[in-house]
Design goal:
The protein is an alpha+beta fold. It is built from four helices and ten strands, in the order αββαββαββαββββ. The protein is globular, with a radius of gyration of 18 Å.
């Protein structure tokens, strides 16, 4: 019995990674979205609003910062990795009800990229676009400048996988997970908030956990 228990502990991480890879690959080719109803070993569901999402190899990935800025910029993965990295550990809370506790995200503070670009005085908000060709999100400028809003390169102390929105995704720690856009490719500074994909379909623009969308979940921060 002790041997079986020890074997299960050793095998568990491999089984979890295998399950995640299987569900992630299936969801990438699932236009029905039904795979998003299935939890994997890590507790996450895989959602995409596109029928399929192209992959970006490390050398092909680009993130643009433009709009109402003095110094528009384009970053590859190596350039993002060379910037100061911040690690945040918070619960992940989906507006549909599931939660994954104590999840680590690491990357560049969004505020650092905004400061490097030189935000113009008339700027009020940020719009995020994604290379799935469909998803978008937004934050007000004060929200975007929070220390717990990251442009993430790592999730659970591993590179962000394609299924989880890699190679680079957004993480907005105190808000419901739909604000943490996957597969981001564009950060555009704007004069006002433009509702994102799910906000256009009825979700709250300000998606604070426990204070929005009619839910009473415990705050994640």
């Amino acid at each position: 019995m002790l041997g079986l228990g020890a074997g299960a502990l050793v095998a568990a991480p491999y089984v979890q990674r295998g399950t995640e890879a299987l569900l992630g690959a299936a969801s990438d080719k699932d236009p029905t979205g039904l795979t998003g109803l299935l939890p994997n070993g890590g507790g996450f569901r895989y959602y995409s609003v596109a029928s399929s999402v192209p992959r970006r190899a490390e050398g092909d990935y680009r993130l643009t910062v433009d709009g109402l800025v003095e110094r528009p910029a384009t970053y590859g993965l190596d350039a993002l990795r060379a910037l100061p990295q911040t690690r945040v550990v918070r619960d992940v809370q989906c507006v549909t009800g599931w939660r994954v506790p104590a999840t680590a995200f690491s990357g560049v503070r969004l505020s650092l990229l905004l400061d490097a670009a030189g935000v113009r005085p008339e700027a009020r908000a940020i719009r995020f676009t994604c290379f799935d060709g469909a998803y978008s999100e937004s934050l007000t400028l004060p929200q975007a400048r929070r220390d717990d809003v990251l442009v993430c390169l790592r999730m659970r102390d591993e590179p962000v996988s394609h299924a989880h929105g890699g190679p680079v995704r957004l993480y907005v720690a105190p808000m419901y997970f739909y604000k943490s856009a996957k597969w981001i490719s564009g950060i555009t500074v704007t004069s006002g908030v433009r509702p994102g994909y799910w906000e256009e379909r009825g979700y709250d623009v300000d998606a604070w956990v426990g204070r929005s969308n009619g839910r009473g979940d415990a705050p994640t921060v």
